[in-house]
Protein: CoF synthetase
Amino acid sequence: MQSAPTFANHPDLLETVTDGRLPVSLESEIRKIYERSPLYTQRFPLHSEPLQWGCYREIPALSKKEIVERGHQAFFDDYAVIERGLASRKFEYESTGGTTQSPMTVIMEDGWWNSQTARAYRAHALLAAYADRPYRKCVLAPVGCSSNICPYEDQPFPHRYFDGTVYLNLTSDPFVFPESEWDRIVTEVQAVQPEVIEGEPVYLSLLARAVQKRGVKVPSVKVVILTYGKASVQHAKRIAEAFPAPQVDLYGSTEAGYIFIGEAFKDDSRVIDENVFVELAPFRDLPDVFQIFVTTRDREAMPLLRYHTGDIVRRTPTGYRLLGREGGLYFRPDGSLVSPSEIDAALPADFACWHYSLIQTSENRWDFHYVADAVAPASVESALAAVLGAGSRVVAFRRRFIAPAASGKFALLKPLAR
Structure:
């Protein structure tokens, strides 16, 4: 009899069952997924007997690459029904490029994104008050963000205001916003007087710069949500200078919805149990470091079963820390791991920037690009070289801007591809 894999969910969700059987909650969800999508039966047919852990482990993990290659149509018996549903707005779609793969089309049933967002909010004390009542929110993120209501063209303010939320961004790279664009954005924030500000960390860091430059204060802000990308401590500090409110780290993806939530940089992220099951798989024999495989809950269109997100987490005494994408982590010659967390910790206390990116250019050479109001102290280079390991050399470059990837996302750490 095979032992159960490790899950990051609260133990009460996965009650213990004898004889190697799956918990009822997990088996029930798996069978719903098989009923809703023909893709999974084609890949691995299920028997009708109660599922054992041995059978669960044989279900092949689903990757983004496979979804792209098969096409989103593979999730449905009759895609013509979905096309009619898109026309009648019973379904909606989004295209997500992520950071490493080709674009993927995601089909969602109408209302799913908002429902799983509300469940995510209820899962954290700082956001629970906003889950079930009207409130004002400003969102600043890449234009291709989580829901396809985000605008793709220059629309006036009223057309970007939905149910108390204004979407501030009209383009893809905040470093190229002219001052007139920041004038517009800051004015709209002042007009809305949001209780919640949500956004990609680089965008919010530069918003903080724009707000401070204009001498503006927004005392209405009660909480800041960092999402859409990996935040650094530098981002968090700059944002807090302009918006002195608690910060929440809300992690997820367009295809899977929100997965983890916690207070930013407190190492206390938890799975949003009502949204997903999260299976943990040991990663490179590192203690308490895992790959994650996500199974969505109560998803009708494109449900995901054992979906390999490509993200790595570290288990802590208080919860989990999101380390980043597998491709965005560096491994020293001895096999130990360097993530953006280690880079943040290595930066001297007298260093401050709006954004940075540490890029490996050869086996031992790294370039540290940063956007700041002042030149970095000389100690930055030696501090980063020390954390990267013996023989590493770091050269710092102060920049006016750091371009994002084609997807609109930014990378804090870019080791050479292996």
